[in-house]
Design brief:
It contains nine helices and seven strands. By secondary structure, the protein is an alpha+beta fold. It folds into three domains: about 80 residues, Serine Threonine Protein Phosphatase 5, Tetratricopeptide repeat (Alpha Horseshoe), CATH 1.25.40.10; about 70 residues; about 60 residues, SH3 Domains (SH3 type barrels), CATH 2.30.30.40. Strands 6-5-4-1-7 form a five-stranded antiparallel sheet. Strands 2-3 form a two-stranded antiparallel ribbon. Strand 2 and strand 3 form a beta hairpin. It is globular.
Length: about 250
């Protein structure tokens, strides 16, 4: 019974709700005006309104989701994919977001799957959790873990031993998950092609050989930037140079 209660508390800490809180009347008015513009098919006005909110620091998964929807309706597939992916950092379990992102990716011309490295496969649950949720979950685990440890210094009923072992396992997995998530975010160099079509060249020069072409909405990995050019990678053996202006990084740093 106690073990079930501890697991329930852990799940409550890990379950992250996301709401869009607006502090000032002017921001609230801007948000509803942008939503109204979207409903009335005035997509460019909606995009402008959502960007104004983002520029004022109102960063929220649902805001990026709405922005992605507006871009998709406006026919700007690259920007739609970009903002859907940004929304995924903040509301990764949102069913509507994930459906719309999959639908948008189905419209892209380049059939390219994202890399699945060892850490991503081993810690597969991290895609469904935000960094903030992991921090709160690990904080809760720390409180429970050290509380049981202190309790066992004074009394040692048999059940505390089993609870301690279970919490120790969760504590180790939780700490490792938090560390891996931080590593993933700090090294995330994914970017989205925004140009309708772009040549991928053998070097950072317009006169270099064209290796292949990429199209709007394709997700790539940017390895480095050099004089307005970006070295991008699709897989271990497929890379090349494109104009930096043709792409935008998913995670803003």
């Amino acid at each position: 019974m106690i073990l079930k209660l501890l697991i329930l508390i852990l799940l409550l800490f890990l379950s992250g709700g996301s709401c869009f809180a607006i502090d000032t009347p002017s921001a609230e008015e801007l948000y509803f005006e942008a939503n109204r513009a979207f409903k009335e098919d005035r997509y460019q006005e909606a995009i402008k309104g959502y960007f104004q909110l983002i520029d004022h620091g109102y960063v929220n998964g649902h805001l990026y989701y709405n922005l992605g929807n507006a871009y998709f309706r406006a026919g700007q597939l690259g920007q739609a994919v970009l903002n859907y992916k940004r929304a995924q950092y903040l509301i990764p379990r949102d069913a509507d977001l994930n459906f719309n992102l999959r639908y948008a990716l189905d419209q892209t011309q380049d059939a390219i799957s994202e890399d699945q490295n060892f850490l991503k496969q081993a810690f597969f649950w991290l895609d469904d959790l935000t960094f903030r949720e992991l921090m709160w979950g690990f904080a809760a685990l720390n409180i429970l873990f050290w509380s049981i440890l202190v309790l066992r210094l004074f009394v040692r009923p048999e059940w505390t031993y089993y609870v301690f072992i279970v919490l120790l396992i969760f504590w180790l997995v939780g700490g490792a998950s938090l560390g891996v998530k931080w590593l993933q975010l700090s090294t995330d160099q994914r970017a989205v092609i925004l140009a309708e079509e772009v040549d991928v060249l053998a070097g950072p020069d317009s006169n270099d050989t064209v290796l292949f072409k990429l199209h709007e909405g394709t997700t790539i990995h940017r390895e480095r930037i050099e004089d307005g050019w970006s070295l991008i990678r699709l897989s271990k053996n497929k890379r090349g140079w494109i104009k930096s202006s043709a792409i935008e990084q998913v995670l803003k740093k």
